[in-house]
Amino acid sequence: MIASYYGANIPLEFIRKSCGEQRGGVTFLHIRKAANLIGLETAEIQIDVENLREVVDLPCILHWSARHYVVLYRISVSRGKTFYHIADPAYGKIKLKEQDFLEKWYPGGQEFGYAVAFDIADEEKLYQKHQKSSRGENYLWQQILQFKNTIIATTFILFITGLLSYGTVRTNQWLIDLGILKKDHMLIIGIVAFLFIASISKVISEVLHQFIIQKSANKLFIANLRKFLKRLTIITPRFFEQHKISELVQKMDDHNKIEEFNTQVFPQLIFNFSMYIFYSIILFPINTYLFFWMLLYSFLSAGWMSIFNEKKKLINYQRYDVDVDQTSFLYEFIIGMQEIKLYQGVENRLNSWEGKQQKEYAINLRAFRLNSIESLGFKTLGILNLCCFTAIGAMMVTRNELSLGQFFSIAFIVGQLSVPIEFLSTFFNSYINAHISGKRINSIYAKEKETAANDYNQIQKLNTVDTQSHYISFRNISFSYDALTMAPVLQHFDLDLKIGEVTAIVGESGSGKSTIAKILLRLLAVDQGEIFYGSQDLSEVAPDHWRKICGAVFQDGMIFSDSIINNICLDQSSVDLERVKWACEVAEINSYINTLGSGYRTNLSQSGINLSKGQYQRLLIARAVYNTPEILIFDEATSALDAKTECRVMENLWKHFEEKTVVIIAHRLSTIINADQIIFMKNGQVAEMGTHRQLMQMRGGYFDLFSYQVSEVTC
Ligand SMILES: Nc1ncnc2c1ncn2[C@@H]1O[C@H](COP(=O)(O)OP(=O)(O)OP(=O)(O)O)[C@@H](O)[C@H]1O
Fold it and tell me: Is the same domain home to 594 and 502?
């Protein structure tokens, strides 16, 4: 969008490819890199809205809702009010009032927002010729195409229903003109019998219609959700650091909106449209004047309804964020109940919830007002239309230009023709919801995937890696969680971890220890630098392939609501009970499991809520050691264990993982004094390195930390 503002035509694929396939989520660095690649220079600015209006050339990119980026392409003023025109990749274009704009742009409580401004740096690059871009994928239409057989079948059934309705009209006309007025009893009985059969057939076809939809829609719905969940698992993990769980839950709900559109609204649209044409064709020969009148009414009604579409889109946009916020709040409220009760936070939390409800209420009120105005205008048009028809039709009957039967038929046709027109409102609503839902779902499919092991054959296999250099080496690593708003956690960072040895990483809180572990596991992608495993550059190894040789226990590891055995072997294709028992012995959790009635088959309820913190951690350790990984990473993995149990777990590890590479991050230094190498971190850099004895002799930061802990113990 920025490039096309400067008159350049650059396909999205070119930008995506050039930015690097393995990066996680879009960050400011990606934007800068993409801009440079196409010949633009960037300036990152922290600015308030007045200066944004006056100083910054549009279009610019804004850091939005503290989690993604949008393009601000225009600022307009109408009746003294300022409007901000935004292009949001997850919604499309949207026009916001200043208050709504600031709510999303200013990070909580601040009086400024972040923006990236652009200017031309290299015209040659900007205007170079690119191959034509393929058309963007439209998720909603893809779904409609997938659903085409059902849509065809259901439309056909609806069509039959329509024909039966038409048959009913004609026979009603005959009933009056031929049966009642000519007093033909046999004909009346025949017509009533036909009406009975036609009505029953209509009921049957409606049931059949619902049945077909339910059957195929369910299948497709499950398949699509499965595909979506699978897709989440291959998105670069950084995405999950940047998005709320409730946002993903809302995206699940988006599938429902698409399903409703596909199964209910779209077939109804085709049917209603066909019926509209069908009845119009019938009306035309009966009375041309009435036909054109009806056409005018249809255009007026459709025009009236389309006026509201932009506003409905905006309401959908605002409602989504409020819903995400509400759901997040409720999760936290339930999960954090203990803290809330303990620290008398109930009133504060409830007030905060009420504030959010008020926001939702305001949006609902706006939606209600909009719908009411739309419906009022539309219904007034409908009533006017009906009155005119009735008056014109009745006059024609008095002038013998229409029979009474024809008059009732026309009245029926007018009624039938207004159904598709009324349906337009439902269609517009559902289409807007489904279209935006489709964009939101597509935004997940558009996220970069982690490269799968089988995606590139040319990549070396890890088993053939030459580890002669004996090190896992971090070279010139820079990493920031968000370069636009945060200082880098690591900058020009170098580190060597000896393969086959135990390395401990200790240091100040927030110094980047867990970040290093996540980078090593390829859960975070670095902004700059390389990591080598022996002589193998890890950026050339598929992350899932690499993770197969790693095991890790994190502070926030997850136990699932499932049996103990299923929690230890997440990969159900290779369950080995003997190995599970062995892993539990290493983790010192076997004796506890043996006390449980169903042993390893015991179900852990609600994500392991029935375990103590120490048992929880030991189960996570058992999971990590189950596959005897080549590289084992413990991030505060034993912090909840008592000193004696921790000691036993560590001894087991030294024994069973003697030849393996082990990285231990711990605050409790007694856990790591036997490590082959200890790294002391400070402000994202290695401050000291050596064995315990060497570091103690240095009398630096490690010495201080250790002395402090010893004195604490003594106290
Ligand atoms: N998901 C995240 N998003 C943004 N910033 C983060 C995120 N995770 C960590 N950080 C920041 O990165 C820095 C390093 O965090 P990290 O967790 O690596 O430190 P640590 O040394 O492991 O700390 P601790 O010993 O307290 O666990 C911190 O300043 C932290 O605020």
Answer: yes
| Ligand 1 atom nearest to CA at 507 | 21
Range of the domain at 173: 139-445
Taking only the tens place, the pLDDT of each residue in 380-401 is: 998 888 888 888 888 888 988 8
Cβ of residue 511 lying under 6 Å from some atom of ligand 1: yes
CB contact at 8 A, 82 and 76: yes
Structure tokens at 227: 């595909």
Q: What is the pLDDT of residues 342-357, one digit of tens each?
A: 888 899 999 999 998 9
Residue whose CA lies nearest to ligand 1 atom number 18: 512
ipTM for this model:
0.97
Report whether residue 519 contacts ligand 1, using a CB cutoff of 6 Å: no
Are 16 and 533 a contacting pair, CB within 8 Å?
no
The CATH number of residue 83's host domain is 3.90.70.10
Contact 220/146 with Cβ under 8 angstroms?
yes
Q: Is the CB of 487 under 6 A from ligand 1?
A: no
Distance between CA 681 and CA 490 in Å, rounded?
11
Cα 556 to middle of ligand 1, angstroms: 13
User: Which H or E run includes 374?
Assistant: helix 346-398
Q: Are strands 661-665 and 631-635 parallel, antiparallel or unpaired?
A: parallel
User: Considering its fold, how many domains does the chain have in total?
Assistant: 3
Tell me the pTM: 0.71
Contacts 24+ apart (CB under 8 A), 642-645: 642/614, 643/670, 645/588, 645/614, 645/618
